Amino acid sequence: MAGLLSRIRARVERLGFRALYRLADLTYALGVATPKRTVAGTYWSYEPTNPHGDDPGLAALDRLPNDAVIFDAGAHAGEHAIPLARDTDRRVIAFEPNGESADRLARNTERNGVGSRVDLRRVGLGDASATLTFYRSTFSKCSAFDRESATRWGASVAGTESVPVRRLDDLVEGAGDGRSDEVDPVPPPDAFKVDVEGHEAAALRGATETLAAHRPLLVVEVHEAGAAGGDSPEETASDSGPTDLREWLDARGYAVEEADDVWICRPRDSAPPEA
């Protein structure tokens, strides 16, 4: 009986996700934008739902000054980037390797009139500069650099594309030494939000120099999936699980505050902003 109930529950979840993503396709096709109320303010989006409206990570980011520079890795359709930029002087650098999501982010950015403050970069972030195969999922938010993540919840791979991946240290002004003249540098961050479907540790590894030099606030959505990491948590953050990632952050002077599946990580050498 328990096995039967589990299968029924899984099927209902798959049907629910399929209906949700078909609805999103429809709202974008018809141009139906609705207001989304969040802890960082209200904005307009063609997305049919508002999954991050009360997100504690979004709330922590919104406590930053109105002229802060925020990096948003895994920006999707702008659920964090747009409310953080709207009605402020903040600059948000949005990294989104999924072409469909990047197109939707651009459209939502235009709808809210924040194109001058949201800088869209159609690249992934990792611990090495490369061009990798990206798996586009039928459930767009599941799209990832590995097939397993792209086929969660009953989704399937809709197609593949080659996507550039960069170390953040090679993009930030005055950080790494691997930046190409073809890449526009980005200013040092006050905060770095990471939600990259199981590859959070790799993205953070590629930002090691930036974290050491600029001590940004980190907001990390933790997933279990991902590629294998390095030799030890003292040297590298293994993508094998949250324990290794926590040890890696601790070794670099970051205190982790858990809020559901979001980690709010502050450098121990700075006080948290006042509410």
In short:
The chain is α/β, with parallel strands linked by helices. The protein has 8 helices and 12 strands. It is globular, with a radius of gyration of 18 Å.
Question: What is the makeup of the main sheet?
Answer: 7 strands, mixed
Distance from first to last alpha carbon: 49 Å
**Number of beta strands:** 12
Low-confidence stretches: 225-238
Q: Give the number of domains.
A: 1
Give the H and E element order. HEEHEHEHEEEHEEHHEHEE
Describe this structure in words.
With about 280 residues, the chain is α/β, with parallel strands linked by helices. It has a single domain (about 1-265), classed as Vaccinia Virus protein VP39 (Rossmann fold, 3-Layer(aba) Sandwich), CATH 3.40.50.150. It is about 30% helix and about 25% strand. It has eight helices and twelve strands. The protein has helices at about 1-30, 55-60, 80-85, 100-110, 145-150, 200-205, 210-215, 240-250; strands at about 35-40, 40-45, 70-75, 90-95, 120, 125, 130-135, 155-165, 190-195, 215-220, 255-260, 260-265. The strands form three sheets. A seven-stranded mixed sheet has the order 5-4-3-9-10-12-11, with helices on both faces. It has a three-stranded mixed sheet with strand order 6-8-7, with no helix packed on it. The protein is globular and about 50 Å long. The relative contact order is 0.12. This is Methyltransferase, FkbM family.
